[in-house]
Amino acid sequence: MYRIVLVDDEPLILAGIISLIRWEDYDCTIVGKATNGPKALELIREVLPDIVITDIRMPVMNGLELMEECRKQGYDFAFIILTNLEEFQLARKALSLGAVDYLVKLDLESEQLTAALTRAKSLCDQKESHQNRQLYDQLMRENAGQLEQNYFGQLLLGSGSESLPIPEGLPERYPHPLIIRFTMRPEHVQYKASEPYDFLFIRQQLTDILSGICSRYFQAFTILFLSAEQILLIASLKTADYSIPVLSEFCSKINGTLDIYFGLKAVFGICDAAEGFESLPEASGNARMAMEHYYYDSHSPVVFYNGQPLHEASDRDFNINLLKRSIANAVTQNNSSQLKSVFSDLTELFQEYHPGHSQAVSACINLYTYLNDLFLNEGNAYSHIFPDTLNIVEHVKQLGSLQDILIWLNSFGEQICMLLDERREKPLDKLVALTRQYVREHYREKLTLSDIAEHLNISPGHLSNTFRKYSDMTLSDYIAQVKIEEAKKLIDTHQYLIYEVADMLGFDNAYYFSKVFRKVTGQSPREYEQSGHGF
After folding, report:
1. Would you state the pLDDT for residue 273?
2. Is the confidence at residue 315, as pLDDT, over 70?
């Protein structure tokens, strides 16, 4: 398998080249990507590829300079150059430096890429002994990394770790090992998320990003995934001294990157440097305790373990059954003040008794499902307020601190109170009457559910559900009915063409008008006109 590194400062170009062919069909695999010359050079030193496909014009260090620097450092592999149409002279110089081919990016097709790969692979085969040495060295490094991961995984996550043999060279690579545990969560706390965050989907991207940042701060590191969103990092700083500022900067860098790429934030628990590998299980437990401390004291997402005691979770049962009568009364009477008072009481209880994470989550889900059932029992599907329950459960479970849970709880309460205010200010039968009146007064305009809801100062979902319940038809059907009745009156005058009638009634075009006319009356506007109406 020929190992390939791609270099281009345009991510879209990199993505396009990667998707152009099935690389394994040509006995090739992409082992790394870089966006400029210096990063490419660092990557090349690490993975020792067989073939480098690089853009010729890049900031900091261009493709020609990259080729020259690689030759100076003794790297002897095949180069394929990417150019634009106007860079032919540069491409010729690249060929003179030993590039096997150049490809014009704007005209690049799979056949041209595979032909260049064939020439590059042929050159690699001519240097078989050198290639074998490169592959052997790389396999040794990869095998060493896998041995490290297996050892730390068994030591920290497995059983019977006392008798584990330490891989050769590991103590030298990790002279002062430390543990960093962290959990990733969505950046912003809100009542409902569109869907639970799929951490498994982005795992490989996360690994690549974390590895890049870790390599700047640590002389050695191993990444272990405890779960989809939880990571255990075993690392050794480049200096012997345990440095809180350096580790704080590292965590800040991780959080900044997570925010930019994924809209995530992380909470970190960090232990003191361990004396040796036998102390790492205890250090891992201390890092976990530091993270648990954050649940109750969330002023900083980076918590260093220094023996601080954990808050004791309350043994109080946070079942909301005692509040259900007040909740039901508030909903029945559309009394938002009463419901707000219930949420305020629950918030005060949380703050006073400090429920553990599972207790607090259970109470929130219990409250959510009870309110959802109340509204369902009224025959109204308030889907804009109550999305899929499983999504809400997963969303609340991902909240990392008691403060985040309280923010979610207050946000949920505000949504329900707004709904009660809507229902009180505009009784359902009156709401339907106001809607019908607005449609009759504005039937010549282009009417939408959102426009009408905005005029009535309510949510589109509430308007749609209420109108269907009390009118036995959808709002869009009612709008169509009113418009077509007026259309028939205009057609009966025989003063207007069909497209003129469509325009007068706010339809986008005559085709759509005819489609709606047929749906309501069973015949087209032309058929209706020809049937003799209006005489």
Report:
1. 74
2. no
Do residues 385 and 413 touch, judged by C-beta distance below 8 A? no
> pTM here?
0.49
Helical residues (DSSP H) of 158-187, grouped into ranges = 170-173
* C-alpha span between 423 and 268 (Å, rounded): 45
Q: Whole-number mean pLDDT of the chain?
A: 83
- What lies within 8 Å, CB to CB, of 105 at 6+ separation is 13, 55, 82, 83, 84
* Least confident piece of the model among 38-47, 291-300, 419-428: 419-428
> Angle, to 10 degrees, between the axis of helix 475-492 and the axis of helix 510-521?
100
Categorize the per-residue pLDDT at 136 as very low, low, confident or very high, splitting at 50, 70 and 90. very low
Distance of alpha carbon 81 from alpha carbon 306, whole angstroms: 54
The type of residue at 467 is: F
The whole-number pLDDT of residue 157 equals 82
Contact indicator for 498, 461 with CB cutoff of 8 Å? no
305 φ/ψ sector (left φ>0, alpha ψ -120 to 50, else beta): beta
**DSSP secondary structure string for all residues of 199-234:** TTTTHHHHHHHHHHHHHHHEEEEEEEESSSSEEEEE
Residue 163 has pLDDT above 90, yes or no: no
Distances (CA, A) of 437 to 385, 430, 456, 472, 476: 27, 10, 11, 17, 14
Tokens 């499983």 sit on residue: 390
